[in-house]
Amino acid sequence: MPVFSLDPAQVDWCATLRALAAERLRPLAEKGEPGRVNRPLVAALGDLGLLSRLFSAGALELCLLRESLATACTEAETALALQGLGAHPVASAGTAAQRERWLPEVAAGRAVAAFALSEPDAGSDAAALALDAAPDGAGGWRLTGEKRWISNAPEADFYTVFARTTPGAGSRGVTAFLVPADRPGLTGEPLDMLSPHAIGALAFDGVPVGPDDLLGEPDHGFRVAMNTLNLFRPSVGAFAVGMAQAALDAALAHTAGRTAFGGVLADLQSVGHRVAEMATRTEAARLLVYAAAAAYDAGAADVPRRSAMAKLLATETAQYVVDSAVQLHGARALQRGHLLEHLYREVRAPRIYEGATEVQRTIIAKELYKRHAAARADAALEEARA
To answer: Is 77 a residue of the active site?
Structure first.
């Protein structure tokens, strides 16, 4: 594969995004209430035209957008990403009426979207979800059950909900629905989580949905979910790379100016080597993320493997880099309000959501063995023809 690099226009755009995040979005983020949807911040993302790009951007552009915002303001990055995650199924699988009703509102920052896949007993094993969609006898369904760890819940304006329409059919019995938040029988509560974002649980007590609420075909909702996750997995890696870069920048500034042992910390070989390792891992993760996104945009056959590799390496790298930066700063980095204290709480969740690290390794291994088996079969066929 050729060496990957950004062109000057992309580099300039990323610099503009970082400046916007620092100057326009960070002040709004700081006024937000932890654990609540920051609607002024979402509205500002709409006013700046960033949310509308979610529905036209390729995977690489999405990665550049998320990485750049994350370097300067993780709250802005997350608010943007959650709009995309919740609304992408509508853009890709929704009807014309659904798209016309909701996508302009999402793009303008007036409507908040949410992606409701996880359940108390169906997180990494998403195909095991149990939210029941029982036929109502009139061509629709009644949703009964629970969703948990849903970002933007319970404050979202609508939810992309995945429910079981065919019991015992695994991933083939799941259907996707667009469920407005004001549907009767739908309630929710916030969860007090480590990260500062709005995350909650949803309860469905016979929530009515009909054919007009379908996203795609009945029993094909798992494909809607996976298509969304395959697009967003590399960009989760980009979010992680942005956090790693912010932590690396902070570590460089601190160790270059902090006096200790008759000099500055940067003069100590152990410190220099740690910073070098942090920088090398960050750059490697960045290149893998970009390569995975470029493969997605090119329609490559190995997107699942590349996406899984990108998310795996980038999120694990970010954890290492942020933790190392905290270590180099010492106790000051653990004080509430410090950038690294904030990043330390932010960086843990991406190793779990949208497919935990262990799931990514499983996907990678499965894809590698599939490719190995195909190569052996091709070789055997060629040998037989000879």
So the answer is: no
